[in-house]
Amino acid sequence: MTRKLIMFDIDGTILDHESKVPASTKEAIQLLKENGHEVAIATGRSPYFISELRALLEIDSFVCFNGQYVEIDNEVIYKNPTSKEYLKELFDFSSEKEHPLVYMSAEKMKSTVEMNHVMEGSFASINIDTSHIHVNSSYFNEIEIYQTLLFCQEHEEAAYRKSMKDLNFIRWHQNSVDVLPMGGSKAMGIERFMEHTGFSKENVYAFGDNFNDVEMLQFVGHGVAMGNAPEQVKQVARYVTKDVGDDGIAHGLEMVGLL
Q1: Is 9 noted as a catalytic residue in this protein?
Q2: What is the pTM of this model?
């Protein structure tokens, strides 16, 4: 079999509804590697929030911050930080509306306000400890920021989209939105990954379950939506597998002929 590249989202894809890796998923990923395929992660998370998972699954390559930071075999091959000018504009606009931000660099996360129950609840949904997130509203001036979390309701998004045409807003939680440079997506990060490794689209597979996976599922040759994905996400995928809690990864890999 021709060597393939398989990209996996984390939350709702590798991790089940209890933020655990199903035994069938771990076994399936191990088999892919034993069969000579390249396995990588494509996530909205930061590198420091996937280290334990990477160690567990023995995965050395990843696309983080929804495509803005790519590392292959422990070498950073692509970075796309958000413009400080745009971040200042976002900070001013969100401050007026009293909407908190969390800045995400390659090393840390900093917030514009003290963590509140809305922010805590959003992070808790993906089992992330927020005790290390401290306030530094000027953090974006000190270091490269690859992704910003904006905490607002869905009906409040339109004002941001209208005011800031150079930023991309992708909802990942009912209370929070990923903010990226315009054009930034997992698809862009995967494209850089492919350029570096030489994989062609027809040999690239991707598994995902949420709105930040849409571009990725459309871009690769074989996009697989999890059974727990929203209907809009399933509609753009080439295949739909079972729920993550029902051995969805293993089933999907068998369905597309990789196992």
Answers
A1: yes
A2: 0.91
Alpha-carbon torsion (65, 85, 192, 234), positive or negative: positive
Residues 6+ apart with CB under 8 A from 47: 62, 64, 69, 71, 106
Residue 53 has pLDDT above 90, yes or no: yes
**For residue 67, which of 168, 191, 159, 174 has the smallest C-alpha distance?**
191
Candidates 114, 112, 116, 115; CA nearest to 136 is 112
Q: Are 219 and 205 in contact (CB under 8 A)?
A: no
Domains and CATH numbers, the chain: 5-79+184-255 (3.40.50.1000), 84-181 (3.30.1240.10)
* pLDDT tens by residue, 149-184: 999 999 999 999 999 999 999 999 999 999 999 989
State mean pLDDT over 231-243: 98
- Take residue 140 and report the two structure tokens written for it: 């974006």
Q: Which of 119, 79, 69 is closest to 99 using CA atoms?
A: 119
Whole-number Å distance between alpha carbons of 219 and 226: 16
The closest of 208, 234, 238 to 222, measured between CA atoms, is 238
* pLDDT tens digits for range 179-208: 999 989 999 999 999 999 999 999 999 999
pLDDT for position 33: 97
Contact 116, 80 (CB under 8 A): no
Q: What one-letter code names the amino acid at 187?
A: A
Q: Is the dihedral of CA 108, 193, 233, 218 positive or negative?
A: positive
Question: Active site residue: 9, 178, 209, 247, which one?
Answer: 9
